[in-house]
Amino acid sequence: MTMISVVIPARNEAENIGSLIDEIDAACAAHGNYEVIVVDDGSDDGTDRVVRDRMTGRSNLRLIRHDRSGGQSAAIHSGVRAARGEIVCTLDGDGQNPPAEIPRLFAPLLAPGSDGVGLVAGQRVGRQDTFSRRMASKIANGIRSRLLRDGTRDTGCGLKAFRRDAFLALPYFDHMHRYLPALFNRDGWKIVHVDVGHRPRGAGRSKYSNLQRALVGIVDMVGVMWLIRRRKRSRPTEIAVEN
Fold it and tell me: Glycosyltransferase 2-like domain spans which residues (predicted)?
């Protein structure tokens, strides 16, 4: 049975991470062969202690800790590199992404004839965010979709599933997690979209403001457009000669 690695990037989520791990266990129990990797992105609220307490007697729960905060993309990248599974699922550490959706994400990657599918991207419906954040996200997603033509209405959703080797072949840069559909498409992979639920944050607050997201997004958008235009277009074929 294919192993699934669930990667959770988390920064200062001590109040949310314990119950989130329990929900992931409940969601993945039917599959059986899975692991959960929490990447503590330089937390100072004891997030790592909560995870350590739950690791006792559980060989499939792992903890990776950054010595300083590197951001969500850095945390995801560290988790994927450490993952033992062929398929990786991600979700945010704040509890807003329902873990019950995880099986619906990895299913298209395990289905017969799915060899060409590289990424399954969750698309939030009924978002439980403030009006200003929803509007900022809608505008940013509209601009991104028009410029990158990635066919995705919501790249900010933390619920995603993808092939580990395909992800690690992508060029790494900070904030790349928001451009995964465009990057996977750049490398010739098919993208599947799945509508998923969304919940209010359990505790704490968001780590980024709308202004911060917008300013960073402008630079990243230009960079991704450059990467798409400079992609490798030739396809190698090895020629064998009978001796």
Answer: 5-167
